[in-house]
Amino acid sequence: RGYGKSEGEPDEKGIYSDSQAAYDWLVKVKNILPGEIILFGRSLGGICAVEVASGNPAAGLILESVFPSAGKMAEKIFPVLPLGGAIKSRFDAISKVPDLKLPKLFIHGTQDEIVPYKLGRELFSVAADPKEFYDIQGAGHNDTFLIGGAGYFNALGQFIKKVVS
Questions:
Q1: Among 12, 73, 104, 131, which residue's Cβ finds the most Cβ atoms within 10 Å?
Q2: pTM, rounded to two decimals
Q3: 108: annotated active-site residue
Q4: What confidence score (pLDDT) does residue 74 get?
Q5: Which of 19, 65, 69, 112 is catalytic?
Q6: Active-site residue 18, yes or no?
Q7: Exactly one of 54, 89, 141, 143 is catalytic; which is it?
Q8: Helical residues (DSSP H) of the chain, grouped into ranges
Q9: Given its phi and psi angles, is residue 134 left (phi above 0), alpha (psi -120 to 50 degrees) or beta?
Q10: CA nearest 76: which of 122, 120, 114, 121?
């Protein structure tokens, strides 16, 4: 909604609604059991995956290059301005992940130029167990799978096997 060639304006409520619709389609139309669903989101999509996980059962949650909240990102971009409270959209994962009991895999590139690695670690630090963190040395925001190579895909595969079997 509002991204790429999609119509409309992007807004937090609409993005969450679209994410929930995708989950509902899997469960209600495709008859996929929640225990067979692994939610995966990267960057802003990770915030959406956290939102869906907050209200729905799933086997696991994979968060790649995800930021804690819009306020934290504003502080990163404009460190001398007190913008955290002025941001209209909250996109707040950091207040939700402590309550998520499903298995979680966090993936983040150590050289992420958009969402700093330390913000990914901050989100991980408040998450409830079970949780794992897989860092990709030298990877930026959009090349984690390229830089990570086989190790990246092995981490995904091992996590998926663990939570679905």
A1: 104
A2: 0.87
A3: no
A4: 62
A5: 112
A6: no
A7: 141
A8: 12-24, 44-55, 70-77, 117-126, 144-164
A9: beta
A10: 114
